[in-house]
Task: structure prediction
Amino acid sequence: MSDLWIEVDMDAIIHNYRQIMAGLSAGCRLMAVVKADAYGLGAAEVAGALQGEGCTAFAVTTISEALLLRNQGVDGTILVLGPSSPEYWQAAIQAHIELTVSQLDWIPTLNKLAETLGTKAGIQLKLETGMGRTGFTGDQLQELAAALREAPQLEITGVYTHFARGAQRDRAYTRAQNEKYLAYVQTLEQAGIRIPLKHVCNSAAYLDFPEYHYNMVRVGTLLIGHCPAPAFEGRLRLKDPWLVKARIVHLQKAAKGTFVGYQSIYKAKKDTTLAVVPVGYADGFGIEPRLVPQNIVDLAKIIVKNMGALMGIQLGREKLLCNGQPVRIAGKIGMQLTVLDVGSAPCSAGDEIVIPLRRTQANPRILRMYKKNGEIMRIRIINEGFLSPSEEQLSNKR
Ligand SMILES: *Cc1c(COP(=O)(O)O)cnc(C)c1O
Result:
């Protein structure tokens, strides 16, 4: 079916969820952030598994992500974190999806729409305290409270903000953001706004500022088994649910001096064997986020990495394993094919290679295989198996 696939270990995700729950402050709920297809693992699958564990609150970025979860049977709270366009609001309200409100002029429009639909619309307010992205600023709060008083169809379920430097060692900035948040919340409450849920923590702040848990935290990164910063390593015993594998689909002996791939940047230094695996840029392989150095050592590493890349050496990505033996990438990674110089490693066509592919970069088109207790429980295939149009359909088109 596919020679490239991702294995997602549901037991590891549930393990991570339980670890996070065990560290939650009393009276605090967990909102599972499953945006960006649960960081590549599969939003519906991850949310479904967490729902089975008792999780009743989920967050995504867009209304379409939220509708997908609803349609897949997620029935708790689903909050849209990002800004959204009015043309999608009706679908969201009808599916009982909560929208984040961060612009004043959305309030009367949303209120009117809810009234027309004969229902209430659940909303959360986003406050801008230092992320510089979306949210109400301090000088808008009185106007905000006034607009909300005129909007009886809007049901405010929570007020939140988002930290910019939670994963950095700069705790003062996060503290200042939190203080702003608390002051803004107080202003709103004094203006008569009732606020059931108060939340500020993402994964990093969940770990580093337990005193800011309040009555909800929004956690994504930890659920999928990733630690947001090296400094927090070991604070939770997380399991990695993510494994990408590709099969060797072509194997060929190559003489010393053979050029490999585009621009011939790789040349075999001795007689060897070249293996081809069906993974490349289109799948997200070899694509790295731009690195921002945090200190001088970081900067040196980034420079070396970039110099290596210029010379065709994929530093940090050479650790591919075939039958437990390291094999290296030969030449440039292609759109959907990559060549490996396997040397004298014992490799055969059909052997599995573990591919280092970043979770959030992995194309959703790659088949996902969900495992529970070591057994495959579900397979997700996107964009495969199109049917050809019939002769009749084609002649109608012409
Ligand atoms: C992504 C996101 C989160 C979750 O962040 P993690 O660090 O992945 O836990 C929380 N809140 C908002 C607003 C987000 O965009």
